[in-house]
Amino acid sequence: MQRPVRRNLAVLAVSAAVVSVGAAAPPSSTPAPEKVPVAVGYGGAVASVDADASAAGIEVLKKGGNAVDAAVATAAALGVTEPYSAGIGGGGYFVYYDAKSRTVHTIDGRETAPLTADEGLFVEKGKALPFADAVSSGLGVGTPGTPATWQKALDEWGTKRLGTVLRPAERIARDGFTVDDTFRSQTASNEARFRYFPDTAKLFLPGGALPAVGSTFKNPDLARTYAELGRKGIGAIYHGDLGDDIVATVEKPPVDPASGWNARPGKLSDKDLAVYRAELQAPTKTSYRGLDVYSIAPSSSGGTTVGEALNILERTDLSKASEVQYLHHFIEASRIAFADRGRWVGDPAFEDVPTKDLLSQRYADSRACLIKDDAVLTSPLAPGDPRHPAACGARGTAAPTTYEGENTTHLTVADKWGNVVSYTLTIEQTGGSGITVPGRGFLLNNELTDFSFTPANPAVHDPNLPGPGKRPRSSISPTIVLDKHGRPVVALGSPGGATIITTVLQTLTGFLDRHLPLVDAIAAPRASQRNAAQTELEPGLYDSALKARLEAIGHSFKPNPEIGAATGVQRLPDGRWLAAAEKVRRGGGSAMVVKPAP
Questions:
Q1: d(Cα 188, Cα 398) in Å, to the nearest integer?
Q2: Is 408 noted as a catalytic residue in this protein?
Q3: Is this structure's pTM higher than 0.90?
Q4: Selected catalytic residue, list 112, 178, 408, 449
Q5: How far is the C-alpha of 87 from the C-alpha of 68, rounded, in Å?
Q6: Tell me, what DSSP letter sits at residue 112?
Q7: How far does Cα 93 stand from its chain's mean position?
Q8: 3-class DSSP state for residue 128?
Q9: Beta bridge partners of 127
Q10: Quick one: which of 101, 273, 504, 588 has the fewest CB in 10 Å?
Q11: Per-residue pLDDT tens for 330-351?
């Protein structure tokens, strides 16, 4: 589901009644923080899609917390202000740079399928369940990984208690935040299915109506949930009453009988919660232009696919290429990397994923020779064999790229000691499953719909079919780039389903090769090729002369109004941090620093 572009609803804001859960509330006496796309200064930096969330991270940094503490605080706040993108009902991937040891570490906090799941999880009467039927159901809900990710990160590298870093988010949920165009338009796009579930309708359609722009939206249930997590720890979810409520909601989704909606029950159990672990694992590592690029390894395909594409591009001097040739090579490298992703990447606990081979320069060179300056590859392109590279070779039959919900959120944080976090978290679709846990104030994910419902290509093994306790493949690509001395150069990431990979790749090459300022590399109009017949273009490219020049080579395009919503931080040579976010997408992002400086 495409996250809607902000609409101009300022007229509504003038006459908006202030809303909250269950009752009207007076306007907030504290104005919303200013939303700016770039900030420079000392003491640390935070970049996210939301000003309240970025401010929560800055608050923790100012009180002596480090980048990990601030990242958890920012993520928790996003669970309040961006509840259709993230929250404790979802999962994500956490990448951390430790300045003292100059090493990168990661956490796989992806949701898992129930232990009773098998390859037929989304098959009924011998056919794949329609995607829309699976989304708004208990069947698509995986075991939440976000709370475990927060605790694991704090235990390993943080300096504050969970309860301490949850306080800013708890306060925002209790006191409310100002509804903007994006929040209202997202609610509007989900209104029909939100009405299937009375608890969701009560929370997000207060008084039976869409929340008005400029009104104050409160979520006291979520404030109480955060307070409970702060007191009891994440055991309240994985071994306690909160977990029991999640299981009960999944097993019997609280649907309005009058809606006629078949909210298929899921099979999530107390045991699934009890055995869940957020996994520490080694990052992916790719050398590019003399720099080391670190990201997340499978179960996400982000690190391997971005890394393979960078390796393919390594032999081309993109800094001297024309804009047409730069985009041509970027598109073709993306096409090839996605062909390999679809064949080889899945949950490594279940699949033999050739991660090292996918990231080898030898393999990338064997695939790069497919790219011609004056011709375009045909999609779907067949994968290669990373274990036995053959020049311009392919192995087996091509498979189409399966759909992933495009909603998620990304945050990037740095602290005064030089530690950095790049963290992407999600509940999958805009609005996740649409199912709110009664009395708890948060939506459940529909992350299991990221599995292939049936084999993407029946002729070959699909590594992304469901399985018991298996993690569905993701495209999340939180990335940290270090120089040859192990010091941070830039960190970034994006939401956007499978377009995350192309967004991160394009932003990295725009910054590292085309030498765009970070905020401009983020703002540049995007293209996304995912081994499909057509490449998606944002209006800035679709409506430009570049489109015709690329079509003359053989490219075919279709429009996409908005691709991704990146954030990043950059370490400047003089020790200052630069935080950058979107200028326009999702209404613009929020970049902040602890001590602003010119």
A1: 38
A2: yes
A3: yes
A4: 408
A5: 17
A6: B
A7: 8
A8: strand
A9: 124
A10: 101
A11: 999 999 999 999 999 999 999 9
